[in-house]
Write a structure and sequence with these properties.
The protein is α/β, with parallel strands linked by helices. It is built from 9 helices and 18 strands. Strands 17-16-15-14-8-13-12-9-18 form a 9-stranded mixed beta sheet. Helix 4 packs parallel to helix 5 and helix 5 packs antiparallel against helix 9.
Length: 383
Amino acid sequence: MDRKTIGIVLGGVTGRMGYRQHLVRSLLAIREAGGLPLRDGSLLWPEPVLVGRDDAKLRAIAQRHGLTEWTTDLGAALARPDVEIYFDAQVTNAREKAIRAAVAAGKHIYTEKPTAGDLAGAVELAKLADAAGVKHGVVQDKLFLPGLRKLDRLVKGGFFGRILSVRGEFGYWVFEGDWQPAQRPSWNYRTADGGGITVDMFPHWHYLLEQIFAPVRAVTAHVTTHIPRRWDEAGRPYEATADDAAYGIFELDGGIVAQVNSSWAVRVYRDELVEFQVDGTEGSAVAGLRDCRVQHRSMTPKPVWNPDLPATERFREQWQVVPDNEEFRNGFLEQWELFLRHVVEDAPYSWDLWAGARGVQLAELGRRSAREGRRFAVPELEA
Ligand SMILES: NC(=O)c1ccc[n+]([C@@H]2O[C@H](COP(=O)([O-])OP(=O)(O)OC[C@H]3O[C@@H](n4cnc5c(N)ncnc54)[C@H](O)[C@@H]3O)[C@@H](O)[C@H]2O)c1
């Protein structure tokens, strides 16, 4: 079968996301499947060009996976005529500069979120990419989680009636790093390095709310740093300057109120690391990463508040499990396939740098809301 090769520069490929989800579970998975089948009957073959700061680490990854292309020189990688896409999974504050260089080199852009450190930077990237006529996409992986796909199916199928509210609970205990090593990179806890849970998670909440429910029109948030001192990868103590918890209230079109707690200083008493409860006039659902449960209005119990008596009902057992009804694949892989088709076949792809900028906007307004103790309307972005 005819095979077309597409060169993809990967920045940040030594990192957690860049290596595991984007290289191994997405691009190499496409190669293992023989390539991505295209409409014209040919197969698209991604050829990663690994870029980073440490030649030895890049070489080790390349050799482990039988790859031949790597360099510490981003400019040289972007100058290659066989490269069509630049992908970025670097630490957040290194992203803007690399994407600007890639746009200037005429490459299509695919990137992790948040797309930039602030709204001005994120809008600028979207404008530059539009002006250069390159295609652009931003990772919105949570939309592909099985639990949230099922939730989306319920919304589209009209299960809820009028949706009233959404309550999200995200987080787990991230160890401080002294007596047990931290399970997340230390830059996430330093503002100067682009860290902070608001800037990390609000972009996710933005696309989930916007795409499953309705556009976000206003935000009120309380943002804080519960754990002010942590220990880094080398065991050195550092001041945690970035926020590690963000408590947000988002007002959506249609009067829907979404409250989402995000915290790296919380212990899990839930079934999953993220869960959303949605209440509507006709029914309710609780969705996590994988599972989704529902309770229809016809099955809703009628508890009566009486603190003198023990609970008489097993409330958790009154919910029904939503069946899969389809096979769920890795969300990062699915999005890569869609973006590659967007680039080579002009297939539609709506999660672009403007969508990314709206996520950064919500984070910025959330932080401002917390700083100033005010509620902020979310203005439309001007293209
Ligand atoms: N979509 C998701 O679910 C998701 C989850 C986690 C992280 N992320 C995003 O992915 C990005 C990477 O996060 P991660 O958890 O993989 O981090 P990580 O620390 O594991 O990886 C960061 C990468 O950037 C490189 N890097 C570090 N400092 C750099 C610098 N100063 N200049 C250039 N490169 C540098 C590292 O070498 C590494 O390759 C972040 O922007 C983060 O917001 C997304």
